[in-house]
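REVIEWER CHECKLIST
Item 1: Sequence provided? yes
Item 2: Single chain? yes
Item 3: Sequence as submitted:
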Amino acid sequence: MKKVYILVLSILLPICGIAKNALSINCLNSFKLSYLFAFILLVGCMPLQQVLVMRVDKIENYKYFYITPTNRINSSTGAVYGNQYGVYGGSKSKSINPSELISGVLLKEGFLQTPELRPELINETLIINYGESGRRPRGFGYTIEVTIQFLSAKTNAKVCSCSAEGQGETEVDGIRMAINRCLSGVMDKGSPVY
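Item 4: Structure as written out by the authors:
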């Protein structure tokens, strides 16, 4: 903390001209503005929380997966501006189906997806559930936290779960980032089993 304080002062003192006149009103106003700018910069650059992975069993013991269906999520962002020549603007719309993204990552990892739970494959099948588990203010927006749960199809016992947060230009970008961070943590072979 002391190093951060010294760093902030070493940046702010030359800006406000402390060496010339430490008590001038302009210097104090400049110092306040600089402090406000530094605070906004620090708050806006807060890191995302670490991915939380809880393992009860090894996910590698399973070959197939069934994922519960999720609804498509849509979000958009846009801006409008104008001048004496007219009004201009644009918007972007994005959508995501979380179960499709999760399926794609697991298929890439070598798992096989089943459209329904089949009795002959139940010993080697995972049931995967997805949910949004929270939001947290960060910078000029908010993060979205997702939780993905892996259950044994035979016993309905938890095999593994993970939670991660993401933030992007739109809510869809945040969800996509959170899912990818979460699954990267699960697929990390070096993660311990709890």
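Item 5: Key structural point noted by reviewer: Helices lie at 2-16, 25-44, 98-108, 171-187.
Item 6: Recommendation: ____
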